[in-house]
Design goal:
By secondary structure, this protein is α+β, with helices and mostly antiparallel strands. The protein is built from three helices and three strands, in the order E-H-E-E-H-H. The protein binds iron/sulfur cluster (2 copies). One iron/sulfur cluster binds next to helix 3.
Protein backbone atom coordinates (compact mmCIF):
# COMPACT_ATOMS: atom_id res chain seq x y z
CA UNK A 1 0.00 0.00 0.00
CA UNK A 2 1.07 3.53 -0.60
CA UNK A 3 -0.10 4.05 2.95
CA UNK A 4 3.27 3.11 4.39
CA UNK A 5 4.16 6.67 5.28
CA UNK A 6 0.83 8.08 6.45
CA UNK A 7 0.34 8.01 10.19
CA UNK A 8 -3.21 6.80 10.72
CA UNK A 9 -3.43 6.05 14.42
CA UNK A 10 -5.42 8.35 16.69
CA UNK A 11 -7.01 10.06 13.71
CA UNK A 12 -10.73 10.95 13.80
CA UNK A 13 -11.16 8.98 10.55
CA UNK A 14 -10.58 5.77 12.54
CA UNK A 15 -14.20 6.12 13.74
CA UNK A 16 -15.30 5.18 10.22
CA UNK A 17 -14.25 1.56 10.86
CA UNK A 18 -16.84 1.41 13.64
CA UNK A 19 -19.67 2.18 11.19
CA UNK A 20 -18.17 0.40 8.19
CA UNK A 21 -20.90 -1.30 6.10
CA UNK A 22 -18.37 -3.95 4.96
CA UNK A 23 -15.85 -4.46 7.75
CA UNK A 24 -12.64 -5.93 6.42
CA UNK A 25 -13.33 -4.75 2.89
CA UNK A 26 -9.83 -3.25 2.95
CA UNK A 27 -8.29 -6.65 3.78
CA UNK A 28 -9.88 -8.70 0.99
CA UNK A 29 -8.95 -8.68 -2.69
CA UNK A 30 -7.32 -5.28 -2.29
CA UNK A 31 -4.94 -3.21 -4.39
CA UNK A 32 -1.94 -2.60 -2.17
CA UNK A 33 -0.47 -0.26 -4.83
CA UNK A 34 2.54 -2.59 -4.93
CA UNK A 35 3.68 -2.56 -8.54
CA UNK A 36 5.30 -5.65 -10.04
CA UNK A 37 5.64 -7.61 -13.26
CA UNK A 38 2.53 -9.48 -14.38
CA UNK A 39 4.54 -12.56 -15.30
CA UNK A 40 6.25 -12.87 -11.90
CA UNK A 41 5.58 -15.82 -9.64
CA UNK A 42 3.57 -15.25 -6.48
CA UNK A 43 6.67 -16.19 -4.45
CA UNK A 44 8.68 -13.46 -6.18
CA UNK A 45 5.96 -10.89 -5.50
CA UNK A 46 5.86 -11.93 -1.83
CA UNK A 47 9.65 -11.56 -1.54
CA UNK A 48 9.49 -8.11 -3.14
CA UNK A 49 6.61 -7.04 -0.88
CA UNK A 50 8.48 -8.15 2.24
CA UNK A 51 11.55 -6.25 1.05
CA UNK A 52 9.59 -3.06 0.36
CA UNK A 53 7.66 -3.32 3.64
CA UNK A 54 10.81 -4.26 5.55
CA UNK A 55 8.85 -6.89 7.46
CA UNK A 56 7.26 -10.29 6.89
CA UNK A 57 3.86 -9.55 5.36
CA UNK A 58 0.87 -11.89 5.77
CA UNK A 59 -0.76 -10.84 2.50
CA UNK A 60 -1.24 -13.44 -0.24
CA UNK A 61 -0.77 -12.31 -3.83
CA UNK A 62 -3.84 -13.00 -5.97
CA UNK A 63 -2.51 -11.69 -9.26
CA UNK A 64 -2.13 -8.49 -11.26
CA UNK A 65 -5.00 -6.03 -10.89
CA UNK A 66 -6.69 -3.74 -13.40
CA UNK A 67 -4.15 -0.91 -13.01
CA UNK A 68 -1.75 -2.05 -15.71
CA UNK A 69 1.23 -0.57 -17.51
CA UNK A 70 3.69 -1.73 -20.15
CA UNK A 71 7.44 -1.17 -20.33
CA UNK A 72 9.37 -2.39 -23.37
CA UNK A 73 6.57 -4.83 -24.15
CA UNK A 74 6.49 -6.28 -20.61
CA UNK A 75 3.36 -5.69 -18.55
CA UNK A 76 3.37 -4.70 -14.89
CA UNK A 77 0.46 -3.90 -12.59
CA UNK A 78 -0.75 -3.02 -9.16
CA UNK A 79 -1.05 -6.49 -7.67
CA UNK A 80 -4.10 -7.61 -5.71
CA UNK A 81 -3.84 -9.34 -2.33
CA UNK A 82 -5.92 -11.14 0.25
CA UNK A 83 -5.06 -11.22 3.92
CA UNK A 84 -5.60 -14.55 5.73
CA UNK A 85 -5.77 -12.78 9.08
CA UNK A 86 -9.21 -11.29 8.44
CA UNK A 87 -11.88 -12.95 10.56
CA UNK A 88 -15.35 -13.93 9.41
CA UNK A 89 -16.63 -10.93 11.39
CA UNK A 90 -14.49 -8.60 9.26
CA UNK A 91 -12.11 -7.87 12.11
CA UNK A 92 -8.36 -8.48 12.16
CA UNK A 93 -7.54 -11.66 14.08
CA UNK A 94 -4.04 -10.45 14.93
CA UNK A 95 -4.59 -6.74 15.45
CA UNK A 96 -1.69 -6.29 17.88
CA UNK A 97 0.76 -7.64 15.32
CA UNK A 98 -0.69 -6.15 12.15
CA UNK A 99 1.84 -4.82 9.65
CA UNK A 100 2.87 -1.19 9.59
CA UNK A 101 0.92 -0.71 6.35
CA UNK A 102 -2.28 -1.60 8.23
CA UNK A 103 -1.40 0.60 11.20
CA UNK A 104 -0.91 3.65 9.02
CA UNK A 105 -3.95 3.30 6.77
CA UNK A 106 -6.35 6.24 7.16
CA UNK A 107 -9.94 5.10 6.56
CA UNK A 108 -11.82 7.09 3.95
CA UNK A 109 -8.69 8.41 2.27
CA UNK A 110 -7.43 5.40 0.37
CA UNK A 111 -8.88 3.41 -2.50
CA UNK A 112 -9.02 0.15 -0.52
CA UNK A 113 -11.52 1.68 1.93
CA UNK A 114 -15.20 1.21 1.22
CA UNK A 115 -15.89 4.84 2.16
CA UNK A 116 -13.46 6.08 -0.47
CA UNK A 117 -15.44 4.07 -3.01
CA UNK A 118 -18.77 5.48 -1.78
CA UNK A 119 -17.53 9.06 -1.36
CA UNK A 120 -14.50 9.37 -3.66
CA UNK A 121 -14.03 13.08 -2.90
CA UNK A 122 -13.62 12.38 0.84
CA UNK A 123 -10.14 13.13 2.07
CA UNK A 124 -9.07 14.90 -1.09
CA UNK A 125 -7.94 18.49 -0.86
CA UNK A 126 -9.36 21.22 -3.09
CA UNK A 127 -7.31 23.96 -4.62
CA UNK A 128 -8.34 27.40 -3.31
CA UNK A 129 -7.98 30.17 -5.86
S1 LIG B 1 -10.55 0.97 6.59
FE1 LIG B 1 -12.46 1.39 5.49
S2 LIG B 1 -13.07 -0.56 4.53
FE2 LIG B 1 -11.54 -1.00 6.14
S3 LIG B 1 -12.83 -1.51 7.96
FE3 LIG B 1 -12.24 0.68 8.07
S4 LIG B 1 -13.98 1.78 7.12
FE4 LIG B 1 -14.14 -0.41 6.49
S1 LIG C 1 -3.17 -7.88 9.12
FE1 LIG C 1 -5.22 -7.47 9.88
S2 LIG C 1 -5.62 -5.30 9.39
FE2 LIG C 1 -3.88 -5.99 8.12
S3 LIG C 1 -4.77 -6.64 6.17
FE3 LIG C 1 -4.61 -8.45 7.52
S4 LIG C 1 -6.61 -8.62 8.53
FE4 LIG C 1 -6.43 -6.54 7.67
Amino acid sequence: MSHFIILGQDRPEMALCGICPDKGHCCRNFDSSLVYWDDASHEEVTRYMNFIANEQMPWIPLGPGPKRFVQNGRAYSHWLFDCPRIGSDGLCTDYANRPQACRTLIPGTVDVCVFQKIFPAHGKTEEIT
